[in-house]
Amino acid sequence: MSLDFTTAGESHGPGLVAIVEGLPAGLELEREALDREMARRQLGHGRGGRMKIESDTVEIRSGVRHGRTLGSPIAVLVANRDYPNWDERMNPWPVEAEVEESHLPRPGHADLAGALKFGHRDVRNVLERASARETAARVAAGALAKEFLRALGVSVHSHVIRIASVEAPEGPDLGPDDFAGVDDSPVRCLDEDASRAMVEEIDRLRKENESLGGTFEVRAFGLVPGLGSHVSWREKLDGRLAQAVCSIQSVKGVSLGEAWEVATGPGSEAHDEIFFSEELGWHRETNRGGGLEGGMTNGEPLIVRAAIKPISTLTKPLRSVDTETKQPAQAMRERTDSTVVPAAGVVGEAMVALILAGAYRDKFGGDHIDDALAALTAYKERIGWRR
Ligand code: EPS
């Protein structure tokens, strides 16, 4: 059994569901830790009115008993508190009221391609599922993965490094403790001056009816070398991470380590030289590879960055075409956020955690958490891992 998960649910339907399969039995879960993750995803200056309605919590429906996993699929439900306001428009069953259809696809959204592909007249049938509301279910699943990783000594963090034209300065190399206060920043940025400038930039562009993109970074600490594999393209961890992070709504680019920087320099400045000492064992003095070599972890911190495009729902809509009349029209206007980069960092953590948890499950197995821990200890001993 490997670790897998799926989500279901529409943005304004009754709720979202995540089903996580493959977590070992006997793993202790803390309800507060799961709900904390849900609340973190709702943070961030630049969110719209919806976040005042929702207050996401994880309702466990299966796979957990008295705070411990059973080894069976874990189903979690995240209710949409906004649903009563959409009861007629999103009811699973026919309603008497006449429900208005949307025929005005937004450039940059799934609206047009989704409507054509699935044969929907009403674009709402696409946008409801394409909405980034779905990321609440990913974070619920990721919170479970994080609990597994925590038991294995791994932590996953994120921070915002750019919103529109404002970039945080490159700081010193970050360790896990450096992320302690990141959620106190209104934009989840570690640099105070940059945080302030980002908030100003969001306010300035929001007044101009603009949305904003940016960049976030996810780091994972405490990883052993050898997660993933060089032997098959499907098992390469870099590829799996890139797919998982790029699948987050609005993400248009993913980089691992100093990908774009090393592409422009010489080979002698692109790699991380190998050292061995009695105290540290195998180690590196640089981490340009972002903790990945040959599709595997190398024991250095994992560093993944993602670029997010500005949200495609604009309060000053772009030009589009009415799908019924085929006449030029303005794209639909929906209630929306100005930017989601701070929240997307939390979603990035969830996706990275799910991929890493899967890689640990693949390598160390474990129907019970103690089996996984015993296999991990034996592996560390075999390779002489000292961290
Ligand atoms: C979203 C549009 C907004 C966001 C939503 C994503 O929702 P609404 O149309 O209800 O105002 O608030 O994000 C969430 C609801 C969430 O929980 O993150 C979109 O079109 O992607």
Small-molecule binders: ligand EPS
Sheet with most strands: strand arrangement: 8-7-9-15-10
Helix content: 25-40%
**SSE order:** EEHHEEEEHHHHEEHEHEHEEEEEEEHH
List segments where confidence is low: pLDDT < 50 over at least 5 consecutive residues: none
Number of helices: 11
Largest beta-sheet details: 5 strands, antiparallel
* Overall pLDDT: 97
Output the radius of gyration. 22 Å
What sort of overall outline do the alpha carbons produce when their principal axes are compared?
globular
First-residue to last-residue Cα separation: 28 Å
Structural class: alpha+beta
Strand tally is 17
Strand content: 15-25%
Describe this structure in words.
There is one protein chain. This protein has 387 residues and is of the alpha+beta class. The chain is built from 11 helices and 17 strands. It has helices at 31-41, 50-53, 87-90, 111-118, 124-130, 135-151, 192-207, 237-246, 259-262, 341-364, 369-383, and strands at residues 4-8, 15-21, 59-62, 64-65, 68-69, 74-79, 155-163, 166-167, 214-221, 251-256, 274-277, 281-284, 292-293, 296-297, 302-308, 319-321, 328-330. The strands form 6 sheets. A 5-stranded antiparallel beta sheet has the order 8-7-9-15-10. The protein has a 4-stranded antiparallel beta sheet with strand order 1-2-6-3, covered by helices on one side. A hairpin with a 3-residue loop joins strand 11 and strand 12 (281-284). Helix 1 crosses helix 6, helix 4 packs across helix 5 and helix 6 packs across helix 10. The longest helix has 24 residues, at 341-364. The protein is globular, with a radius of gyration of 22 Å. It starts with a strand and ends with a helix. Residues 11, 48, 50, 54, 82, 131-133, 135-136, 313, 334-337 line the site of ligand EPS.
